[in-house]
Amino acid sequence: MKKYLVIGNPIEHSLSPKLHNHWIKQNNIDAMYEKKLLKEIDIEGIIIEIKKEKIDGINVTVPFKKTVIPFVDQLTALAAQTQSVNTVFKKNNKIIGDNTDIIGFELALKHINYDVKNKKIFILGAGGVVPSIILTLKKLGAAKISLSNRTKKKAENLKKIYSNLEIIDWGETPDFNMIINATSLGLKIDDEIKLDYADIGPNKLFYDVIYNPSQTNFLLKAKQFGNQIANGKMMFIYQAQSAFKIWHNILSKIDNETIKLLDE
Ligand code: ATR
Question: Measured from the CB, is residue 174 less than 6 Å from ligand 1?
Answer without folding.
Answer: no
